[in-house]
């Protein structure tokens, strides 16, 4: 269908939005989480954007001025701090996202055991994802089946692996995203799945790290994202309004995609 902008709603040729139109803020009903100062991403110590006034100005609508940041592709490849700054800036992951995850996270914390059980059940549906569990996990010294058909969801190593998966999922919902150690942890989670150990104790003890294809890592993250999204949206209205739930889903999705990048950067040489 051909939609024509009305008077006062001239469309910017490059923005995809109607300049001067009244667009409701997605986070309007969640003002209790906001402060009087704007949120900033971790990249703000590198770049600053021009201040904008919340007072509407008289005159014809104009297209927004785009401030173009300079990003060093080599630096974001070697520096985790700069890479995270770029990721959070691009996805607009702010302190508001972090705050709303912390606020709603406890309400969905109880679904984590079921989420992990469902994820491993899904991984057992395909031999290529199930075979990964035939390799001894770091720190696991219990019995390990010699045949794939003998490996079950109740096997000792699977129960061992689920513990770490639950820790990761809970950290997504409770982490302090203003701290570099949070992103460093997520980066190490990425490294440890590539067959290279990021932890000193693994090397000294001769423990073989995980070696999981990125294809399956990305699919698992997609599965987790769907389950978390569903759990958040199913929260009762007396616990969270629809606006808050939508904002929380958006914030969690940003974290999942940042974690995805902190996996892929160790698999893909770009």
TrEMBL record:
Where are the membrane-spanning stretches? none
Q: Name one GO molecular function term.
A: heme binding
- Cite the record's Polar residues compositional bias ranges: 24-38
Fetch the InterPro entries from UniProt.
Globin-sensor_dom, Globin/Proto
Q: Where is this region: Disordered?
A: 1-63
Residue limits of the Globin-sensor domain? Answer: 81-270
List the Pfam families hit by this protein, alphabetically: Protoglobin
Write down the superkingdom of origin. Eukaryota
Recorded hits in PANTHER family, A to Z, give: GLOBIN-SENSOR DOMAIN-CONTAINING PROTEIN, PROTOGLOBIN DOMAIN-CONTAINING PROTEIN
Protein name per its UniProtKB record: Globin-sensor domain-containing protein
Q: What is the lineage of its organism?
A: Eukaryota, Fungi, Dikarya, Basidiomycota, Agaricomycotina
């Amino acid at each position: 269908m051909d939609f024509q902008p009305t008077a006062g709603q001239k469309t910017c040729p490059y923005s995809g939005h109607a300049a001067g139109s009244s667009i409701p803020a997605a986070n309007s009903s969640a003002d209790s989480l906001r402060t009087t100062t704007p949120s900033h991403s971790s990249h703000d110590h590198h770049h600053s954007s021009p201040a904008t006034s919340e007072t509407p100005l008289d005159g014809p609508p104009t297209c927004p001025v785009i401030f173009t940041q300079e990003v060093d592709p080599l630096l974001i490849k070697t520096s985790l701090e700069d890479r995270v700054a770029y990721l959070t800036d691009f996805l607009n992951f702010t302190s508001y996202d972090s705050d709303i995850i912390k606020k709603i996270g406890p309400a969905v914390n109880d679904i984590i055991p079921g989420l992990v059980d469902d994820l491993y059940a899904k991984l057992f549906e395909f031999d290529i994802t199930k075979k990964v569990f035939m390799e001894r996990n770091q720190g696991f010294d219990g019995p390990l089946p010699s045949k794939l058909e003998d490996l079950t969801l109740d096997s000792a190593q699977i129960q061992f692996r689920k513990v770490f998966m639950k820790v990761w999922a809970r950290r997504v919902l409770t982490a302090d995203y203003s701290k570099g150690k949070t992103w460093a942890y997520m980066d190490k989670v990425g490294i440890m799945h590539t067959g290279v150990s990021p932890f000193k104790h693994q090397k000294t003890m001769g423990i073989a790290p995980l070696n999981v294809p990125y294809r399956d890592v990305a699919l698992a993250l997609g599965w987790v994202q769907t389950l978390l999204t569903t759990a958040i949206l199913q929260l009762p209205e007396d616990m969270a309004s629809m606006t808050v739930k939508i904002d929380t889903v958006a914030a969690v999705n940003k974290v999942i995609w940042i974690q995805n990048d902190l996996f892929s950067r160790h698999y893909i040489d770009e």
